[in-house]
Amino acid sequence: xxxxxxAASCVVLGGCASAPPQYYTLSSPQPAQAVADASGVAPYxxxxxxxxxxxxxxxxxxxxxxGLMLLLNDDRWTAPLGAQLQTALSQGLxxxxxxxxxxxxxxxxxxxxxxxxxVDVQRFDMVPGQYVAxxxxxRVQFPGAKLALTCFSRLTQSVDIGVSALVLxxxxxxxxxxxxxxxxxxxxxxxxxxxxx
Length: 197
Description:
The protein is an alpha/beta fold. The protein has helices at residues 2-16, 81-97, 163-187; strands spanning 22-24, 44-46, 59-63, 69-77, 115-127, 131-141, 148-158. It is 29% helix and 28% strand.
């Protein structure tokens, strides 16, 4: 009798347990297309990426109508959003340029011969079944402090319903941003279709 009661209790309690959270990344599994002739790119460092406080968390944040934010506690990033973006951009730049950023090396952030890249994400919108958007101001400071470009990118993707669709759309936005930054590092000028000062 006792064994039967314990077994029944385990089944009931197991049915009430919540499903484990799903984890997502902004790093794209698709290999990026390398920029042609990137061999002359100087060492570069991608500084910490800043993001709006309301979305810089482990849980994915979606937007609904009338400014309502929805925290998806069962759908999480593998790291807070700012760290996710820095990793995904670093990987995108490395895939396109053939060399990784050097910010994790001792000299990376302080060496005057290293190009500095700064990214400030101002919007990171995820609207289920409609679109995802990423707006970022970014700056490339070339060595010598004489040449610097400040640019603004507004990237949007239409998406289907579902968290996976939201994440995939933002992966595409991040890859597009890394493409623009890679072009700037290679050409030392504004990338195609982006206004820079």
